[in-house]
Amino acid sequence: MSQKYPNKIALFDDDENILIALKLVVQKHYSKVSMFSVQEELLAALEAEEYDVLMMDMNYTKGEVSGAEGLSFLNELVAKFPSLSIVVMTAFSEINLAVESMKLGAKDFVKKPWENARLLKTLEQVVQLKSTTQELQKVKAVQRMDFVENAAELDFGMIGDSQVMRDLKATIAQVAETDANVLVLGENGTGKELVAKALHAASLRKEEAFVKIDLGTVHEQLFEAELFGAKKGAYTGLNADKEGRMILADKGTLFLDEIGNLSLPLQAKMLSVLQNREVIAVGDTKAKKIDVRLIAATNMPLEELLDGGKFRQDLLYRINTVEIVLPPLRNRREDIDDLLHFFKQKFIRKYKKEAIEFSPKAIDEARSYSWPGNVRELEHAVERAVVLAKDGVIYASDLVNAAKKEIYAGPGVLANLNLQEMEIALINEALKVHRGNMTKAAKDLGLTRAALYRRLEKYDL
Fold first, then answer.
1. Exposure check for the chain: N or C terminus, fewer CB within 10 A?
2. What is the pLDDT of residues 3-56, one digit of tens each?
């Protein structure tokens, strides 16, 4: 960073020596850098003129080490000065404090003692994000004046007019306009990938690539090569350079499906990439800059992700700028009729069938059935029913009864299935029993989570 940016930076700390050291580092790169050691003086300055970034210590009273006063003051600053980007400074051991700060609205954090290069990189990224956001807001004002207003009329390929779906479409319309990272939560079959694609299609990155990687199916040893790329000869059998998914998604959107499967060592590497916005291919020494919008998804509840230290809090809050929760189909039964008819028409066209209708009983039973596999299960049930329909009618026995048999197959039924059908039935039963909990279902089936995900992908479950 050799140029001097026309940004105003405020520094807040009770230690004058730290303030001076900070200013010496920062003032070489920014047009105005001001120091404050008293809360009231900082508030007066922020009210008098607009600063771009505030770097603040979280313990600024002598003897105070809990960070409580910093969190309280941060909360006040975010409420009073919403356009101010705040970077908190914490001791190396206070990572939980940094995470809590980001939950309250801080844009990033710097560990004490700091490395000058890392501090400046963090500051540069926060300034650039603020600038990008402001520019995007100007563009959006011109390009999309009616975008959010008409959100209720946009379906994004999502079928259903229930209140929960209208709210979901409005949220997608609003979030799509930003570059914020998004975490999509929902049971299997609720449409997490569809939401990710909708966010991309409605964004200013829509002309660029949408790249998906299913973390449930990638072997840990190949993760870095798959995500970051690898140079020829980096590992046995690699006879040419391999482009990583992050490079392929540059300027576009990267969709990380089932992020909950990421091991802790790989989470650390992912966090580093998100912090530095650059990747180094396996077998290479040169870093490549990346500009991607990250969307992650998981079927695991957040508390389960964090339980027992299986997922890093600091990574979670980097990927979870905005959280979108998808409802299970049983919580939006009023959409079932629309879904039935949509999928029916889709498969009539696909299989070149004549007109087919549902019997009244088939519709009634579909409305009352729990659909543990959600929209994906209903879609598969309709496809099978269309293929097997006789006399132009789909009966309850073709639709719901068949779906129930697929989810729970007793010993007599299993005896009549081939190996693939038996495996599908057992997987569906395990997922139903454990309400979509992949870890428990995999354990019941005697599989690893990765092996279960490979089967789900293989059978499109």
1. N
2. 677 889 999 998 889 999 999 999 989 989 999 999 999 999 999 998 999 999
CB atoms within 10 A of CB 414: 12
CATH number at residue 230: 3.40.50.300
CB 429 within 8 Å of CB 407: yes
Q: Does the reported pTM lie above 0.70?
A: no
Report the distance separating Cα 244 and Cα 199, nearest Å: 22
Reference 12, options 59, 82, 64; nearest CA is 59
Task: For residues 63 and 117, state if they share a domain.
Answer: yes
pLDDT reported for residue 100: 86
Of 93, 117, 141, the position where a domain reaches its end is 141
Domain end among 92, 121, 141: 141
Identify how many contiguous H helices and E strands the chain contains and give both numbers.
20, 16
Residue 253 in contact with residue 295, Cβ under 8 Å?
yes
- Which of 78-82, 196-200, 246-250 comes out lowest in average pLDDT? 78-82
| pLDDT at site 422 | 65
Residue 121 tokens, joined: 């990189």
Angstrom distance (rounded) from CA 132 to CA 52: 13
The answer, yes or no, to whether residue 139 has pLDDT greater than 60, is no
DSSP string, 91-155: ETT-HHHHHHHHHHT--EEEEESPPHHHHHHHHHHHHHHHHHHHHHHHHHHHH-TTTTTTGGG--
Query: What's the rounded Cα separation, in Å, for the pair 197 and 201?
Result: 6
d(CA 121, CA 309): 28
What does the pLDDT look like over 144-178, one tens digit per residue? 444 434 433 456 778 888 999 989 988 998 898 88
Within 27-115, where are the H helices? 39-48, 68-80, 95-104
- Are residue 51 and residue 191 in the same domain, yes or no? no
Expressed as residue numbers, the domain containing 447 is 330-459
DSSP code per residue over 329-395: GGG-GGGHHHHHHHHHHHHHHHTT----EE-HHHHHHHHHS--TTHHHHHHHHHHHHHHH-BTTEE-
